[in-house]
Amino acid sequence: MDNLEDKISGEYVAVKANENGVTIIGLTRGRDTKFHHTEKLDKGELLLAQFTENTSAIKIRGKATVYCRYGTIQCGE
Q1: What local confidence, expressed as pLDDT, does residue 32 receive?
Q2: 64: domain range?
Q3: pTM reported for the whole predicted model
């Protein structure tokens, strides 16, 4: 029997805004990719996100630093 931990075992990423108004958009899995969640961050704010059964990708607009197990990525430059 599957429990919640088995179903939600996706990877985490941290996104730190390097300017005001950074937008984080969650995209769905499935036949058609759709937006399912949006967050706005101001400079210095941090968002922790997880890839799950429903979330296959995130899109970031603006200057931010992304921290994940693969390293650190600067975006919006």
Answers
A1: 77
A2: 4-68
A3: 0.78
Q: Domains in the chain: how many in total?
A: 1
For tokens 């968002």, name the residue.
47
DSSP 62: S
Q: Which of 62, 56, 7 is nearest to 39 (CA)?
A: 62
Enter the DSSP assignment of 18: S
DSSP single-letter state for residue 11 = P
Give φ, ψ of 7 to 5 degrees.
-75, -35
Tokens of 24: 């984080």
Measured at the alpha carbon of residue 42, what is the angle toward residues 41 and 48, in degrees to the nearest 5? Answer: 40
Q: How far is CA 64 from the centre of its chain?
A: 12
